[in-house]
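Internal QA ticket QA-208
Title: Verify multi-chain structure generation after dependency bump
Assignee: T.L.

Test input:
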Amino acid sequence: MTAELSMLIDVSRCMGCRGCQVACKQWNQHKAEKTRFTGTYQNPPQLSPETWTLIQFIEPVDYDDNPRWLFRKQQCLHCTDAVCAQVCPTGAINKLENGIVYINQGICAGCKACVETCPFHIPKFDHHSGTVRKCWLCLDRVKNGLKPACATVCPTGAIRFGSRAEMLRIARERQQILTNQGFAPRIYGEKELGGQHAMYLLPENASIYGLPENPRKPTEKIIWRWLMGVIPGLAILAGIGSYLLKERSKSEAKTGGE
Amino acid sequence: MDLTRRDFLKLSGVTALIATGLFNLKPLTARAQDLQLRIRYAKQTTTICPYCAVGCGQIVSVSNGKVINIEGDPDHPINQGSLCSKGSALYQVANNERRLDKVKYRAPGGSDWEEKSWNWAIERISSRIKETRDAELSDGRKTNRIDNIAAIGGAALDNEECYLYSKFARALGVVYLEHQARI
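Actual output:
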């Protein structure tokens, strides 16, 4: 059993330089996207099959009209209880031993079940390849002893990568420091959805950062998807069975006639 | 085999129970296949980022004479592997479809660019430099400097290229020596 790995995104340390965003594109050889100015530094405006990580620029207007500027690295959180892997009808989405949720591009049929069910809206359908693509925590780099591209490149140490226990220890330390500074920090992903393998250290409420406070998996969708696999399978089997029965009765009728 | 309606319901109930016991809805745990780095066979050399004065170290991976990857050097004391968004995109300086790979020449007063050969361009530049230098040195006074040529460098020259560039300019006697990135 390999050790569980995890990424820790210390939101309080991020300065929004977007080095991670470019490094991700560079390593995974993704194309640039043509975008238009939307009034914010956030560019491209949302995740896409060619953009696996994105810095969200958030300007909350709250108490005493104090303008604030918050940054959050948006990416796949690699949940332990990964809904995408559970609804995948072809088995293309694998939950690996080290915690990484990985979409096998050779098997993915592009049914978009994961796109619909992900509580964080991370997987995106690619119209060119006909498959769904998302962050794979640079599995090729991790397998060969390197850190993921974004964790290597982060200048402020906001993105860290290592064993899950080590990351939790660092997160607790930072949580203590931030608490002393008057924040109410939360380690997002420690227990959410069975524990995520990309955790956030949020200095404030998760909802300000566009994250669900209490992420839940859509269970009814999982059962429905499961039945959608079983029912057609049974139907096909029944079809073959009835066909064979018919053939048999036919041949019996023939032999009976002789 | 005679099946009453009651027997059928009992049987299907038992089958459903067995099925839910056998198939759980938890995600499968799979072993990752052996993934190889795409820079596995590449030759790696170090360089300094050309953009700003921080001077981050980078590793350039070259395969078959082509740059295939540039990333931060974790062993470099200044950046320890990290890079900003601009430095992360350095790969595009080497490989870019919009990069000019032929000499373009626009004659004085001309409005169109024409394509020229490298030989023509180097000869032309050297003869112009000689002309300009001779004009400065022709008044008979002995000076060790050239005031009528300025060297303004390039935006994407790296450390070693800048070194060669300054050596070359100083050999000519140029004193107005500048470069876009002050490294």
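Spot checks passed. Chain A has a mean pLDDT of 89.
Status: verified.
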